[in-house]
């Protein structure tokens, strides 16, 4: 998952600083650096063919959501093309860029983990 999910021991995103539309404070966490990335790298090393990795966020940062919470039925604030949507798109790009620094590339990404009628983004 991109950041935390229902199975995480804590709730977090990579951009928890409010109104950080430029994602200046975007950063991977210890969960990524100490757990997710090493496991993916090890899997890559022992795989007999290239891995097809995919990623999906559980939620956008709370400051980008209509309900201001990590859980619940909040949706992404604003309208397509506005600063919230552009920042959310850039969040995905930053995630890919950060993981690429560890020689991990992704085959696919999904904008949300839930079905379309449950907009947990």
Automatic annotation (TrEMBL):
User: Record's SUPFAM superfamilies?
Assistant: (Trans)glycosidases
Pathway membership, UniProt: Steroid metabolism; cholesterol metabolism
Q: Which UniProt keywords apply?
A: Glycosidase, Hydrolase, Lipid metabolism, Signal, Sphingolipid metabolism
Q: Which GO terms describe its biological process?
A: cholesterol metabolic process; glucosylceramide catabolic process
Gene3D superfamilies from the UniProt entry: Glycosidases (3.20.20.80)
The catalysed reaction is: beta-D-glucosyl-N-octanoylsphing-4E-enine + cholesterol = N-octanoylsphing-4-enine + cholesteryl 3-beta-D-glucoside; beta-D-glucosyl-N-dodecanoylsphing-4-enine + cholesterol = N-dodecanoylsphing-4-enine + cholesteryl 3-beta-D-glucoside; a beta-D-glucosyl-(1<->1')-N-acylsphing-4-enine + cholesterol = cholesteryl 3-beta-D-glucoside + an N-acylsphing-4-enine; cholesteryl 3-beta-D-glucoside + H2O = cholesterol + D-glucose
List the record's Gene Ontology CC terms alphabetically: lysosomal membrane
**Which segments constitute the Glycosyl hydrolase family 30 TIM-barrel domain?**
1-112
Please give the chief subcellular localization of this protein: membrane
Topology relative to the lipid bilayer, per the entry, is: Peripheral membrane protein
Q: Tell me, what is one Gene Ontology molecular-function annotation carried by this entry?
A: glucosylceramidase activity
Superkingdom of this protein's organism: Eukaryota
Name the protein family.
Answer: Belongs to the glycosyl hydrolase 30 family.
- UniProt protein name: Glucosylceramidase
Species in which this protein is naturally found:
Micrurus spixii
């Amino acid at each position: 998952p991109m950041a935390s999910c229902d199975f995480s021991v804590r709730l977090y995103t990579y951009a928890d600083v409010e109104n950080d539309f430029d994602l200046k404070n975007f950063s991977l966490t210890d969960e990524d650096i100490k757990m997710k990335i090493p496991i993916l790298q090890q899997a890559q090393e022992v795989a007999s063919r290239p891995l097809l990795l995919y990623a999906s966020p559980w939620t956008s940062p709370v400051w980008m959501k209509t309900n201001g919470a990590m859980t619940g039925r909040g949706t992404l604030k604003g309208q397509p093309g506005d600063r919230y949507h552009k920042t959310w798109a850039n969040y995905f790009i930053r995630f890919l860029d950060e993981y690429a620094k560890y020689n991990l590339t992704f085959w696919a990404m999904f904008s949300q983990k839930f079905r379309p009628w449950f907009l947990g983004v």
